[in-house]
Every structure is written in structure tokens, then in C-alpha cells.
Amino acid sequence: DAGVIQSPRHEVTEMGQEVTLRCKPISGHNSLFWYRQTMMRGLELLIYFNNNVPIDDSGMPEDRFSAKMPNASFSTLKIQPSEPRDSAVYFCASSRTEVTEAFFGQGTRLTVV
Amino acid sequence: AQSVTQLGSHVSVSEGALVLLRCNYSSSVPPYLFWYVQYPNQGLQLLLKYTSAATLVKGINGFEAEFKKSETSFHLTKPSAHMSDAAEYFCAVTQKAAGNKLTFGGGTRVLVKP
């Protein structure tokens, strides 16, 4: 398996623009997580899905953030409109419910200027 | 509720010396515990996990961790540090009842001196 695949690896955008981050989890995994990593706040869980259903989105910072998982092999995290304080590395991770470790993608480094 | 505390945001060790990274957890039910490593500009990679089997867990790259319920700890050790161990290490906890929601500690950055 290729592991968790995220795209793009790097994104630079202007403030106010819409940004969409993409994730393909490992085949057969039914839990998917979106994390944000910054120097100031460390690793923060934004939202996670079980069987494509959002279970806990309490970590989503504002209404500007939204996440979808239309099927078991694809998820998106959208920021609209983006702001400079959204600059961070965003990680997607997946796991099998019965095996609890999460496997992480390489991350998307987002810079909002 | 679950939480993780990593004592020390930075640790400096000499090559060949013992590596000890501390992790204490809080969990209302028996936890599952993990250590992850992150190299620069990369994602997190699982080092080892505890899932209620043996309390001493061996992982990759010569690391091991011991689950101590009485101390609510899951410290990570390696007998002899190598230059390639320079990275950031994260302890994480989850509970099966929490839907595998991982909660991470703040991370410990390890510097290895020659």
C-alpha cells in the first residue's frame, strides 16, 4: 500500500482565497483524522471521521473550516476564506477501528500571505 | 477525558548515551498508548504501541517503552543514542470508546551531540 496520500505537499495562497487540501486514506481503514501542526500550538486534532461520518469536529477552529468525506477513499479539508494565521502543516491520518494506531501522510504545508 | 503530558520540550543527549523521554497520561478507562517520531519535513511515524498486552513494549530503531499503570506513565527509552535519532517524539493516548481519537502530547525534540 502507498500509505496515506496528501495533496498538495505545499500550498501558497493569498489571504481571502479558498484552499482545498486532499487526502486519500489507506485502503481498508475506516477512521480518518485531520490534524494541524504549528510551532505555537503543536498537533491539534481538527476533525475525525468513522466510516465516512464526522464524529467529532470540535477542533475545527472556525466556520471558515469545513471537511468532507464523500467516500471511504477520499477526504477534503477546505478553508474559505483563508487567513495568514491558518499557515501551518496539515496532516491527514487513517486507522482501522480494530487496530488503533494511526498512519500519517506527509502533510501539506500551507502558507497564507 | 484523556490527556498526555510530555516532560521537557527539548532533550540533549550525547551519542551513545541513554535516551529517556517522559510521558504521563490521564485516562478514565484503560488506554492505548503510542510513541511517534517525526523527522524534519515529514509526517509522524509509529515507533511503538501499548494495547493492554505486555507492559514492556519494543519498537523500531531500538526504542522501547514501559507501561506503568500505578504511575500513569509510558516513558520511552533507548540504551544508546545514535545521530539518526535526532527528531521530535510524540506520545499519544486513545481509548477504544473514544473512536480511536488520538490525543497527542506537546512533543519532545531530541538533539544528539557527537
How would you describe what is shown here?
The complex is a heterodimer of chains A (113) and B (114). In chain A, strands 2, 4, 5, 6, 9, 10 and 11 form a seven-stranded mixed β-sheet that branches. Chain A has strands spanning 5-7, 10-13, 19-24, 31-38, 42-50, 53-56, 65-71, 74-79, 88-96, 99-104, 108-112. With 113 residues, chain A is mainly β. Chain A contains no helices and eleven strands. Chain B has 114 residues and is mostly beta strands. Helix content of chain B is 0%, strand content 56%. Chain B is built from no helices and eleven strands. The chains are: A mainly beta (113), B mainly beta (114). Chains A and B meet through strand 5, strand 9 and strand 10 of A and strand 4, strand 5 and strand 10 of B.
Break the fold down into its secondary structure elements and pairings.
The complex is a heterodimer of chains A (113) and B (114).
Chain A (H helix, E strand, L loop, with lengths): L4 E3 L2 E4 L5 E6 L6 E8 L3 E9 L2 E4 L8 E7 L2 E6 L8 E9 L2 E6 L3 E5 L1
Chain B lengths: L1 E6 L2 E5 L4 E9 L4 E7 L5 E7 L5 E3 L5 E5 L4 E6 L8 E8 L8 E2 L3 E6 L1
